[in-house]
Each structure stands twice: as C-alpha cells, then as structure tokens.
Amino acid sequence: MCGIIGYVGKRNTSKLLIDGLKKLEYRGYDSAGICILNNNNLTTIKRKGKIKDLEVVEGISKIKGNIGIAHTRWATHGEPSQINAHPHTDSKGEIALVHNGIIENYHSLKELLIQDGYIFTSETDSEILVHLIKKFYMDDLETAVKNALSYVEGTFGIAVLHKNENRIVVARRGSPLIIGIGENEMIFASDAIPIMDYTKRVIYLNDDEMAILSANDFKICKIDGEIVDSEIHEIKWSIDQIEKKGYKHFMLKEIFEQPEAMENVLRGRIKEGKIKLTIDFDVSKLERIVITACGTSWHSALLGKFFIEKHVNIPVEIDYASEYRYRQTIVKDNDLFVVISQSGETADTLAALRKAKADGAKSIGLINVVGSTIAREVDSGIYLHAGPEIGVASTKAFLCQVTALILLGLYIKQEKGEKLDQEILKELFNVPEKIKKCLNLSKEISEIAKNYTHSRNFLYLGRNNNFPVALEGALKLKEISYIHAEGYPAAEMKHGPIALIDEEMPVVFIATNSAILDKVISNMEETRARKGVLITITDNGNEAINRLSDKIISVPRTHEDLSPLINVIPLQLLAYHIADLKDLNVDRPRNLAKSVTVE
Ligand code: F6R
Description:
Layout: E1 3-8, H1 13-24, E2 31-38, E3 41-48, H2 51-55, E4 67-73, E5 88-89, E6 95-100, H3 106-115, H4 127-136, H5 141-149, E7 156-162, E8 168-173, E9 178-181, E10 186-189, E11 201-204, E12 209-214, E13 217-222, E14 233-234, H6 250-256, H7 258-266, E15 270-271, E16 274-275, E17 288-293, H8 295-311, E18 316-320, H9 321-324, E19 335-341, H10 347-358, E20 362-367, H11 373-377, E21 380-383, H12 396-415, H13 422-439, H14 442-449, E22 457-462, H15 467-481, E23 484-489, E24 506-510, H16 517-529, E25 533-538, H17 543-548, E26 551-554, H18 563-581
The structure holds fructose -6-phosphate.
C-alpha cells in the first residue's frame, strides 16, 4: 500500500529518498515521486511504474537540496498515472504534499475549493489537501496544516513542504508514520524499514498527532495544538534481517525461516509444563472469545477456533474484521476480543479493535510488527517474533500466529485451573525440526509444480483443522501465481464444487493422520471418480492414498492438533514454485499490498 518517506538533514536527499522508496516497494505500488526543496524552490518528479523508472529520469540524482518528501502510490481514487502520482503541488508550486489514506469528504471539499478558484489536475482525493493547506497558508505551514485538517474526514498520513520553510510538517490519522531521530537529521516513513539505515531511535506518531521536523529539532503536538511528550523507542530489528541472504525471493527466505520463527514465538513461553504469557488481566472467567482478522491472519483465527474449542472448551467466534466493524455486534462482560495482524496496521482490523474496545471489550493482539498501531492499542499482546516479513504473501507470520493462538488457548486453560496436555506442549518443541524436513522437500515440490504452471484452477480440500490450511494453500496460490484456487472443507465439495472437477482440475488434498482420515479418503475417491488430478499431502503410507493420488508429498507426522503447522509448509512451497516457474514477481504480486492501510 502507499508508502511515505521524507528527510531533513545534511545528506544527498535525492539519493536517500530513492533508496528509501526502494525499501518501501514491498508494500505494493503503481507509481512514485519525490519533491526536494532547495533555495526556496520545490522540484517535483513523479512517474507511473517502478522506482527504477523514476530513478532514470534525467537529472533526478543531481537535484540539490537537503530536505524532501517522497511517495509510492497504490491507486485508490484515479488510475495509476503520472498525474495521479504524489507529491501533489498547488498550482503555483509553493506547497508539496504526499498522502496515504483516504479523504472521505473529498467531493464536498473539492467543490468548495473549485468555487474558490483552485484548479485540480489529478483525479485523486489527496490533491484536495494541498489546495486546502494553500487556502489556509499565511506564512506558517504548521498552522495552515492544522486548519486544513480540521475540515478533513477520513484517514491520512501526510508530509508537507512549503518552498519558504526549511521544515517538514507531518500528521497522521489512521495511516502510520514513524519518525527517526538522527544526529542533526530527521527521517520519517510509513514503516520502520527505510529509517533503520540511519537511526534506530524512533517515535511512533499516534492518531491526530503531527510533527514539525527540522534538521536539529522536532516538535510533536496534537492536530488541535496541545504539545505531546512522545516516548523515543529503539528499533530492535537489524538490517540483515531484511536482506535476501542468497535466496531468490524474500518469500522463499521467509518460508525457510519458519523453524527459527517458530522457536522464537515459543521461546520463554513454555516453562516446566506451564505457559508464561504477560496478559494484563484475568482470563480465568472467560465465557466467549471473538477473533477478528483479515486474509491469512483470518485463516489462523479459524485454526485458533478449532484448537481452543477442542482444548479449552470456550466458544470462539471468528469474524472478518471488515465485516465486524460495520455490523451489529455484541460484547459481553466475560468476552475476550482477539485481533491478529502481521503488520499491526491493517485498517479493517484496527477499526474492528476500536469498535470492540468502545463497546467495553478486553482485547489481546497477536501482532508481528513491534510498535505498530494495533500493538499499541490492544490492552495486552503476544508479539509473534517472526522477524520482518517482506514478501507480500504471508508465510512465517501465519505459522507464528497459529503457534501464538495455541499458546493463548493453553494459557487460558491453565488460568481456568485445568491441566494442560503435556504431550502437546512437548510436541510443540518438535515441530520446528519437522518443518525443516518439509523444507527439504522444496526441490521435489518444484518438480511437481512443473506440471501445473498452465493450470487455470485449483481446489484445496481438507477437513476439520486442515480445512483452514486448505483455505491458506489456495490463497497463497492465487495471490502469487494468479491461478484461480478455492479452499473447501473436503466433504462440502459434493454440495457444489464437485461440478468443477474434471481431468483439468488439480485437487490438493490434505490427508494426514486424524480421527477422520477415512472420511477424507472417501472424498478423494469421489474426486478420483470424476477424473480429478490429486496432489496429496500426507504422513500416511496408506494403500488407498497411494492408489488415488497422482502426486504425493510426504510430510512428517505430528500430533493431529498441531498438523496444520506442518501441512501448510508444502502448500507454501507449491504456490511459490508454481509462481516462480511462471516467472512472476513472487514478492510483489500485482494489485496486492503488504500492509492494507485503507479499507
Ligand atoms: C496473504 C496476506 C494478506 C494478509 C492480510 C492481513 O498472504 O498477506 O491476506 O494476511 O492483508 O494482513 P495483516 O496480518 O498485516 O493484518
């Protein structure tokens, strides 16, 4: 999704901004631009396409100036084009602005501004902001921004320059901004990654706060004026965690990091047969758990429901955050509201959390990005410790989310005074080794993948706790290979999707050991009878599975209730290899964004 970076200091700003934009590429974008201030003159250059298209614009690397802003745009209002790209400027080129988010009342504001004689050149909602700031500008950018924002409805992370002021004004409502405090320099961005090359000391701007940044000084205040005393945090990640380290893609690297990621999420959280979590309130009397999330994180929520209902005997409802936020929901005294998010910035998940909290819910967040907005707004949290996830398709964060949900479920059981299943606790520590064995199948899976690069559709089928794994396998494939794929509970197939099955339809079955493996095998028989092509993930050398399957991917056996942690790995690899064989941009699939900060 859109990215912002800006700088004020002594360095070559043009190069710094372009380098920073490259670090934001993983978020997904369709155009980019920079604006640099020098000698009371703003130079703005923008292009549709990739950062490399911007980088080669003649003269861009020679623009002088030590203060500037830059942006990657992911189109919402208006097509991807040079005109719609940011920064936007007023018609005299005195003010430049970059914006993440959506201005909801832009139609009415635009009409008013047009009546006042302002001329619009783009189709974006963002352009109204620059004209609105211009309207209020009377020699002080800070005041003009404050006044303009008081008329704005919607979400924004903005950065603004005026040709006569050697400072940058930034502000946020609903769209993240992080300010890096360097030695005689300030660098800010919509996530921490481009900042880390310069400083690890950061301030996370909160909603309705703004910052006024110059090389040697900063001021944080509320948009309504009140001064804020913000805490400076230290970023704990290192730069080498966000390098590819010899892997062809970030996604592959992240798939291979999963054994370690799982060890990290477990570390220190199981001791002497007990679960140690820092939850700031009593969970012993819970009567219901509601989990909301989006996409892959929603799939892990569904897995959490299977595990918690079975082991903790508490009803768990799950909801898409985008639905929860707009429907009539009920929060009761002994409810727990759980949000799951890799980025901690997903707009729908954040809105669902705020709604539940406003209704009195106690909340827990399962979040990967430390210091993200959701991480800061939940009452209590479990960090996933997956490390930075750069590939747009989520892999290691999913594994850590599911592990964290298992820990949370067991923790609640323990706090209720019930005995924990020691076999599960022990086996959790064996899973990373078993994941390594799955990773050794990568070559074999890439051979299998060669047969399916021309497939147009895929079905993924699993039952019970492997139904969410089927959903996740299908999502991974469609995201990065653009092959249409659906996940279903295997037995549900006969109620409709079976009509799709013919010799052109690969069907991935998850058929690992479980109390209902025989039922899964019956579903495989039904598929085979319709000439479907079966690719089976199994830990079982069963004669029927061998007979029915065209391809078999053998995975190590684990506890039935932990099997999703193993079974998802070959599905990630299958999706990866199919997309890679199709020569697609695995890490930055079309139309997708890593962090979905608009609704
Ligand atoms: C799938 C994927 C998305 C995200 C979803 C939620 O591979 O990456 O479906 O899972 O956008 O994102 P987070 O977890 O950051 O809230």
